[in-house]
TrEMBL record:
Coiled-coil region list: none
Xref: InterPro entries: Pribosyltran_N, PRTase-like, PRTase_dom, Rib-P_diPkinase
Domain Phosphoribosyltransferase positions: 151-257
The protein's name in its UniProt record: ribose-phosphate diphosphokinase
Source organism: marine sediment metagenome
EC number: 2.7.6.1
Amino acid sequence: MDKILIAGPASQILGVNIAKKLGIKALNTETKLFPDGENYLRINIDDENLIANKEVIIVQTTGPSSSGNQNSRLIELFMMIDSVKRMGAAKVIVVAPYLAYARQDKVFRPGESQFADLIIKIINSLEIDEIYVVDIHATEVLNKISCKAINIDSMKILADYIIAKSDKDIVVVSPDKGAKERSKAFAKHFGENTPVEVFSKERDVKTGDIKMTGKLNLKDKNIVIADDIIATGGTMASAIKLAKKSGANKIYAVATHALLLGQAKFRILKAGADEIIGSDAIDNEVCKVSLAKIIADYLK
Ligand code: R5P
């Protein structure tokens, strides 16, 4: 079946790069907000037959950025799916490296919505054929998706970027217990016996304030702190301060999804990070590695 790719407004670079790796045509979109705030999206084609009977790959991350918040990104994604279905796509594949609301997978306080579940229900109702996400916050969320759903691991390409710097004495630090298994797997890319240290994080569910503890000796070690998401930078900055106190030499702050909200970059660099490293799951200035090849390999 012929394939065609639509690079959504939030993933223009990643979308085009995946299309190049697959050797297929990429289309873009036209978007705006109506005066009343409603989203508008149009796939940039003159002839709808371009979509009919094709396998259509829609690439749209749904994280917040300067040009759109996650609500707009989700609506745009839903609009693209709806449009290609209406135009007769034979198969619809969604690549949404960052899945918005995935962190709201539990009820933390009485009265809350477990909203990640509703996002999945909406996706299920759209009857797509496959969905690919990258390093989703909690993989359990994907168990509720009714089509083929794959969580792609970006850790090797992020590790390769740091390995290329040839630093010795690497220690991987997990900023909280939740990231422990991911950090252990990440550390293996630096060598079988690369040490992993785990900090303990407590977040006040009302204020969002973070308390981090951990007593380590990181003297003269080069530290890689790896997380799935950097949002406000609070987690990363706290981990960096602790690592510095413990004698760390260089510190790399690594995340698949470097959302870098508000003052996050300042907080992280001021805390003592030498570099912030993200992937093109989020299109911004710290995106140092591209997911295009690993995603394209899944789509071949
Ligand atoms: C939480 O468990 C996640 O893995 C991240 O640590 C968290 O989302 C980062 O958020 P922030 O940058 O706001 O501390």
